[in-house]
Here is the input.
Amino acid sequence: RKVVIVGGVAGGMSAATRLRRLDEHAEIVVFERSWYVSFANCGLPYHVGGVIEDRQALLLQTPESLGRRFGIDVRVGHEVVSIDRAAKLVSVRNLNTDRVTTESYDTLILSPGASPFVPDLPGKERALTLRNIADVDEMVAAVARKPHTAVVIGGGFIGVELAENLQLRGIDVTILELSDQILPPLDPEMAAYVAQELVEHGIDVVTGTEATVIGEHTVTLATGEEIPADLVVMSIGVRPDSHLAKDAGLEVNSRGGIVVDEFQRTSDPAIFAVGDAAEKRDALTGDAAMVPLAQTANRHGRLVADVIVGRPTSSKPVLGTAIVGVFGLMAASVGWNEKRLRAAGRRYRAIHAHPGSHAGYYPGSETLHLKLLVDADTDEILGAQAIGKDGADKRIDVIATAMRGGLKGADLADLELAYAPQFGSAKDPINMLGFIDD
Ligand code: FAD
Here is the structure.
């Protein structure tokens, strides 16, 4: 069996290595258009700030190490440019020589990821984006030129991480966000805690207005105001890199996501798609959703390998569990937020609690801001958000686990969670959420 994989990072490489573990004879070829595979995308912002000082630490594997350890044929600097589904061939351009050759496959896995979206603004050429090692090199070089000011356009996860890291380099940073709050997965009253943390660390947060022009040393807002910007970063979201699939006639949804079934099979049974380019199945409704997160990319890469070798497996929909750190403050969420529930006309109950992260009498307890959303009729857990300097990650992970297990809101009262005063409370914040009924 010969499996060809497009994209050698999160989803693609998870599929490749799992496949090798399950089938020692499969021929596995991975094409990666950049010069690196298996790099730590999620670590990139922290290299910009110098938190991860060593660039080499971002490079988890090399084509050679993957070849030696897993017998996987990894070709970097190779871009797959088209798919001939009838002949089961891909055309591949060697970016060193510009030569195009073909490679046959029995099964093809697409994990091409998503590209940062750059709107058509005057001056957009000056805006930096962050997706891969070449981008991080460019950003690190820009920071080395000692800019005094930076504007980060877009207050999502990557924007907020980059704002922190640029500020760590002594740059005056402004985050510019079109909507009236940063971090869209959170509800406004929860995002406000994060905005406050940013402001307390000297970062300007400007919401509810858009950039109209990127000038030589400024960004102009719709209001006419000009913000100093020696450096401009664009982080307003990503778009699936699905043109290859589309050109090959595979079904693609209205947001550009490659349509797949629950086992990640595209509209062509010999082709699978995973990761940011593939559509996901929402855990609450079963509807198609786009969720560009590393865990799902890795999970689905693994799943595809199981399916290819015929191993019995099951597929779970996506909750969208996510977390971001801002100067030591954690902001985590899972499932749907209140904005989305309201827009969908769903009947829900919102439960807010502000307990200590552990017993108040033990030093170092920090306030946790928790929000739980449950169905008003069935008590099904629909989503949760947690903000705090300590223990927000743990609480969201517990709720994500409860959601996966089908527990109801009231069941949280009965969860038996580890307790000693430095770690929690005899009535853990999670239990408290389960105590609160209407
Ligand atoms: P990628 O990992 O992006 O890999 C796709 C690869 O395919 C790319 O290297 C691309 O060069 C290659 N490719 C595309 N087209 C072709 C072609 N035609 N031929 C050959 N190769 C091709 N997620 C989290 O859950 N937590 C985080 O903290 C987090 N932080 C992030 C921080 C940053 C800065 C970024 C950019 C992303 C972050 N993510 C995070 C998201 C996470 O990295 C992605 O969800 C995940 O990498 C998606 O995996 P993928 O395999 O779909 O795409």
Q: What stands out?
A: The radius of gyration is 23 Å. Residues 6 and 110 are 5 Å apart (CA to CA). The longest strand covers residues 381-388.
